[in-house]
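Worked example

This section walks through a single chain of length 197. The input is the sequence exactly as stored; nothing has been trimmed or padded.
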Amino acid sequence: MGRFVSILALAFLTACNLGPLMQVTPGQTVSAVAVYDGAVTVAGPPSYCIDPEASRPSGGFVLLAACGTVGGDDYPRYSALLSAQVGAAGSASVSGSEPVLASLLETSEGAASMGLTGTGLSNVRAGDNEVVVMITRRASDVPDGVGTTEWRVFTDVGDRLVTLTVRSIADEPLSADDGRRLLLRFLEAVRQANRAA
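Given that input, the structure is written out below as tokens.
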């Protein structure tokens, strides 16, 4: 269990000091980007594009928003902020251990390892190479404009742990079902991008 705690702690590091900004030509929108020199491709579901100012592909961090907010003209049905954090080589730990990871996330130790002390974790579900959790934060712990509910999925892509997150927007909160559906669309987009690679 200690190995999972360490891996989870690494998965939730912020994007600070993760490398240079992503370079995108002004007016251009991008829906997929390779991180760690092509080790993993992060792709968004339809109508979500990479935010070049916030993403750090060389450090494995990618932020996605509605394409219309980052230079495009397409808006998704559900407004949300999406992010991906790709771990270092050899960090893969989900496949084959899904029930163990899911059980850890339901403990106070698991929540603490994610920096979520005082917040709620619910709807933990394990599937084939995926563990999904819904997180409810205190309003004081989230930036202005961001909702208090988010959804995360842990999965392995190659030999790397990948954490995908969907964050609700304060003015347009997602229902529990819609948030989970959007997260799973994000997961499928990433899987498809890496199958094609």
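What to look for: The longest strand covers residues 146-157.
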